[in-house]
C-alpha cells in the first residue's frame, strides 16, 4: 500500500539549485548553515525584500507611502535594512518600539496601534514622537493625560473600525464588533476633542484584515476606506494629514493559491487618488504591509535527524518544528492543515521519488511540517527547506515549548548596503 501524495503550496519563484543545492541570495544552503553555526536556521534574503518594495512602489501611485508592519518579522537586522527602503513603521507594542529605537529608527516614522497600550508604552511613544493610533475613547483620555504630564503635545491618530470588512481575508480585523479601532460613528466627536486638546492631529488608520489574495476585494476595501475617511473628515470638520489605508496583501502558501495582482490594486487606487474629495486633497496616503514584503524572502532550514518507517509510511524527523514555524504546522489560525511549500534543500534539483511526512522534533502529534509530500529520497544529514518563512515564523511561534530553544536567524544579501549587520 503506498501513501498518496498531498499537494503543497507553490515554491516562490526564483529559488534555484546550484550543484543540486538550494541557493539563497547566491549562497548554497549548506554554506549558509555552516556560517550561521547550525540548524534550525531562518534565512532572510535582503535582496528579495528590496525587490518586493521596489515592485510595490512601481505598481502603486508614486505619492503613496509604504510602511512596514514590524509584527510580521521583528528581526533587528531586517528592521535596520527596512529603514532604508520603506517610509515608515507600524508597531503594536513598546517592545517593538524599543527594537526600532535600537537600530536607530526615529519615532517620527513610527505609528503605534494595538488595543491595550500600557501607560509606560504610551509614555515612551510620546517621548519618542511616535504617532499613537487610538483604539478607544479611554485611550484618548490617557494619551492627553500622558502628554500633559510630559509637557509634550502627543501625535494622535484614530484607528477606525469601519462599517465594512475585507472580503476573503484570512483574518478579519475590521467591520462588525471588534476589539480593534473605534466604531466609525463615535469618531467625529473624538477628532474634535483631539484638536481641542492641543494634541497634534495626525489622521486616520483603517485596517480591515490580513492575508487576502483577492485583488478586487482589496481594491474595494481601499475605496470604501477612502469614502469612510472622507465622511468622517467632513463630519468632524477637519483636514486629514495622513490616512493609513491598511494592507491585507497576502502571499500564496497553499496549493491552488495565486499571487496577488498588485498592478490592478495600484491602478484602481491611482484612479481613486486622482479624484479625491476636497477634505482629502492634502492627505498623505500610506499602506502598511508585513507579510507581503518579507514572507517569501524567508526560508527555514532544518536538518533531517532520522528517517523511519512506520506501518509503511516514511517519516523524516527534522531538528526544527512548530516551535519555530507554527503556521507551517497548521496551528496558527488555520482551520484545516495544508502543506506549505517545502523541499529537500540539499537535493533541490532531484525529482520526487517517494512520499514522506516531514515531522518536527517536538513530542506532540501537532508537530507536522509536511504531510505526505512528494520528495526526493532524503537521509539524515540532508537539509529540508520550508518556504514562505519570512513572516510570522520565528517571532510568532512558541520557541520555549519543549525546551529545544529558538532558531538561528540571519539576513543575507545586503552587505553592500549595511555593513556589519546580520550575516
Ligand atoms: C498584522 C497587522 C499588519 C500586517 O499584516 P500583514 O498580513 O503581515 O501584512 C498591519 N497592520 C495592522 C494593524 C496589523 O494588525
UniProtKB/TrEMBL annotation:
Q: Which cofactor does it need?
A: pyridoxal 5'-phosphate
Catalytic positions are 363 (proton donor)
Modified positions (N6-(pyridoxal phosphate)lysine) in chain numbering: 71
One Pfam family recorded for the sequence: Orn_DAP_Arg_deC
Question: Keywords in UniProt for this one?
Answer: Pyridoxal phosphate
For this chain's UniProt record, which GO biological process terms are given? lysine biosynthetic process via diaminopimelate
Q: Where is each Orn/DAP/Arg decarboxylase 2 C-terminal domain found?
A: 42-390
One molecular function GO term is: diaminopimelate decarboxylase activity
Q: Which domain of life is it from?
A: Bacteria
Annotated Orn/DAP/Arg decarboxylase 2 N-terminal domain residues: 48-294
Family affiliation: Belongs to the Orn/Lys/Arg decarboxylase class-II family.
**NCBIfam families registered for this protein in UniProt:** dCO2ase_PEP1
List the protein's name. Ornithine/diaminopimelate/arginine decarboxylase,family 2
State the organism named in the record: Novosphingobium nitrogenifigens DSM 19370
